[in-house]
């Protein structure tokens, strides 16, 4: 059995020194002989049937040991993790510190692994932790705002002969030029003045223009071949339209909802606003709760993992040279990693284990969020090997819900806050697909388990014994998720058309971070 010595290089990085005897390497030497036998062509012997002594003579015992070492790196690394109770958070490097003397059966091989590891920290006490949130007040203006939004959705557009102003809809023709050359164009684009969701500077450019007027402005292009470059944009307004809102009366209530009267519709909107306020309190409580614990715990975060995630994120956005955005992503990533470590510690302390039902609910709701059929979503994450990551996220979400339920949440007036609605799950909505989801989840988990048991592919044998090599296919880095565990409760209540007549507005499906 190999002997392992562990040395902490930093709060987030360890060095594992593994001493391996020839006996420890023996099973891998046998496989190495077989592998080489199938690769070499030696006169008088069929491939796969070359005796070991002939391989030693023709290829060299050193090459066999190198092949065995490459084949065994993962096994020795995993054994070292178990022996030292190290929890890796990244891919390790492997360096041969002392090479085996092939002529001495008593000699040992020494491999040094370095890997980012889960740091040690003391989990602060959270039972009874007081969290103060804002008062949830729903005034008449909030209800009127929601009613106005609903009226806008059902409003009609009327062409007007006057300059455009904020809130109007305009039809635009756009041409973008760089160095006098047309690089992009669009015609017949409908845009709400003041929305701010197109090119920077467009609102200022079109406001006060009338139909058939043209102006130019400079803006950074947002996509295509010239993304990120400044261009001169010529914009022509072809029409100006104002939105006419329907009267807020019983006829409108019947057209826009399932209610008969405007009074019933207002009541439903008020209930939805109250529910949104509860969700806002829940999100605030969650954020304050985790921020307080992270600050008290002083959780060390791996700079290497942060840098890897920042680079991956910026590379995906094509913004590697954007230093300002880099700092924003870095700060966010550090918070996400610290949060993940905190929730993992809570899950371990609380012995949190998600049920099959909870996992299925989470996947169902995630599929809804992405606008996908649950079965298709499950197939996608299964084929992408994401079931383990999903399980980890569900575990953290549940751990957060368990811990938050033990805190004392009050508003600024001292009123105790009931977060049960914030953690509610609409079981009726899920029931019809739950059975199918569970079957797919079980199949996906079985498939991943089989894949994990399959031998990992190793790098080719190294010629130089002391040469540094990555321990290929080692435990994957636990990178900060694109959406972190706690963030799953961020969704605002879905805007419902209207529930049932005279019934309270239907609860939105909450993410299964909150059991």
Describe the structure.
The protein folds into three domains: 114 residues, Trigger factor ribosome-binding domain (Alpha-Beta Plaits), CATH 3.30.70; 240 residues, Trigger factor, domain 2 (Orthogonal Bundle), CATH 1.10.3120; 89 residues, Chitinase A, domain 3 (Roll). It is extended, with a radius of gyration of 31 Å. The strands form three sheets. The protein has a five-stranded antiparallel beta sheet. Strands 6, 7, 8, 9 and 10 form a five-stranded antiparallel beta sheet that branches. Helix 8 packs across helix 9. 43% of the residues lie in helices and 17% in strands.
CATH superfamily (homologous) name of the largest domain: Trigger factor, C-terminal domain
Question: What is the CATH class designation of the largest domain?
Answer: Mainly Alpha
What's the CATH topology label of the largest domain? Answer: Trigger factor, domain 2
Assign an overall shape. extended
CATH architecture of the largest domain: Orthogonal Bundle
Mean pLDDT over the full residue set: 83
Cα separation of the termini = 44 Å
Q: What are the secondary-structure elements, in order, as H or E?
A: EEHHHEEEHEEEHEEHHHHHHHEHE
Strand order of the largest sheet: 1-2-4-3-12
């Amino acid at each position: 059995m190999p002997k392992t010595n562990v040395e902490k290089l930093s709060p987030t990085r360890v060095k594992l020194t593994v001493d391996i005897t020839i006996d420890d390497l023996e099973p891998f030497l046998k496989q190495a002989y077989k592998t080489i036998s199938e690769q070499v062509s030696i006169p008088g012997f069929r491939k796969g049937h070359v005796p070991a002594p002939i391989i030693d003579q023709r290829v060299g015992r050193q090459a066999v040991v190198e092949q065995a070492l490459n084949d065994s790196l993962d096994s020795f690394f995993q054994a070292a993790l178990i022996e030292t109770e190290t929890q890796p958070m990244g891919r390790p490097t492997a360096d041969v510190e002392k090479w085996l003397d092939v002529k001495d059966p008593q000699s040992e091989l020494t491999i040094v692994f370095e890997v980012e590891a889960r740091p040690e920290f003391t989990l602060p006490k959270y039972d009874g932790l007081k969290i103060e949130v804002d008062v949830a007040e729903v005034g008449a203006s909030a209800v009127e705002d929601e009613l106005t939004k609903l009226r806008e959705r059902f409003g009609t557009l009327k062409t007007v002969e006057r300059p455009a102003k904020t809130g109007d809809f305009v039809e635009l023709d756009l041409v973008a030029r760089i160095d006098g050359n047309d690089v992009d164009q669009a015609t017949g684009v409908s845009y709400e003045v003041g929305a701010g969701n197109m090119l920077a500077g467009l609102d200022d450019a079109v406001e006060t223009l009338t139909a058939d007027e043209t102006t130019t402005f400079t803006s950074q292009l947002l996509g295509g071949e010239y993304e990120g470059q400044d261009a001169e944009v010529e914009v022509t307004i072809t029409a100006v339209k104002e939105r006419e809102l329907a009267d807020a009366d019983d006829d409108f209530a019947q057209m826009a909802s399932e209610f008969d009267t405007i009074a019933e519709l207002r009541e439903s909107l008020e209930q939805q606003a109250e529910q949104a306020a509860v969700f806002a309190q829940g999100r605030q409580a969650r954020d304050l709760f985790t921020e307080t614990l992270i600050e008290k715990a002083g959780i060390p975060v791996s700079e290497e993992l942060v840098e890897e995630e920042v680079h991956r994120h910026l590379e995906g956005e094509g913004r590697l040279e954007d230093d300002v955005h880099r700092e924003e992503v870095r700060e966010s990533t550090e918070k996400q990693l610290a949060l993940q470590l905190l929730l993992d510690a809570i899950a371990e302390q609380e012995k949190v284990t998600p049920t099959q039902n909870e996992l299925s609910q989470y996947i169902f709701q995630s599929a809804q969020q992405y606008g996908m059929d649950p079965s298709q979503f499950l197939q996608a994450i299964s084929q992408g090997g994401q079931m383990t990551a999903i399980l980890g996220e569900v575990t953290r979400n549940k751990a957060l819900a368990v811990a938050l339920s033990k805190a004392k949440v009050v508003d600024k007036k001292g009123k105790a806050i009931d977060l049960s609605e914030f953690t509610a799950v609409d079981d009726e909505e899920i029931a019809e697909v739950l059975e199918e989801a569970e079957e797919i989840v079980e199949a996906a988990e079985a498939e991943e388990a089989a894949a994990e048991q399959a031998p990992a592919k190793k790098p080719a044998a190294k010629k130089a014994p002391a040469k540094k090599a990555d321990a290929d296919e080692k435990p994957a880095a636990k990178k900060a998720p694109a959406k972190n565990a706690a963030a799953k409760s961020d969704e605002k209540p879905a805007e419902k058309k209207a529930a049932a007549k005279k019934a309270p507005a239907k609860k939105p499906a909450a993410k299964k971070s909150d059991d």
